[in-house]
Amino acid sequence: MTESPVACHGDECHPYPGGYKGDWKFPLSTETIAWYNSRMALRRTSHAVYDTKYHLVWFPKYRKDLFAQEYLRERAAEFFREIAEEYEYNIAEMEVAKDHVHLFLSFPPKYSIGEVVRTLKSISARELFRQYPSIKKRLWKGELWEDGYFARTVGDQLTSDMIERYIRHHRDEKQSSAQLGFLKLR
What we know:
Layout: E1 6-9, E2 12-15, E3 25-28, H1 30-39, E4 43-44, E5 49-50, E6 54-58, H2 70-87, E7 90-96, E8 101-106, H3 113-131, H4 133-137, E9 150-153, H5 157-172
Parallel strand pairs: 1-3
Antiparallel strand pairs: 1-2, 4-5, 6-8, 6-9, 7-8
Helix pairs in contact: 2-3
């Protein structure tokens, strides 16, 4: 016998449409539901509800200090925000350093991590080269970004808070070559 799963809220139970095999019951107190909802930043698309967060890091080609000037860092950050808005990414924290980029963001599950990184890197490179042709002259093959990247999924609020603090701290600290040694891409 196939029954629809049921969600119980207090003494009330409601079947889920569509159904699954078995008798699924989830008795949750009002307090439990309120606690859970207060800690979940759920996002919605037309066909998905999700809570995904990613910490992404990548470098300019040859790890050059291409963003040593503040105006270039600010413009690159503006491009990342514009791209994020266009593609429905949500940037929680960002740092464009002189020789690498940190992004802490969420995006719909219809995109893969590789697709998001490729989109951010390719559009930002095209626009930066268009507005600042002198950057391209500093690179041998005319590519702005290294091929690789670092990606970490973030599973809970504690981890999210730690990564946001790390990026903010990194932005405020004087950079040293040892800071990102653990992120070697090759």
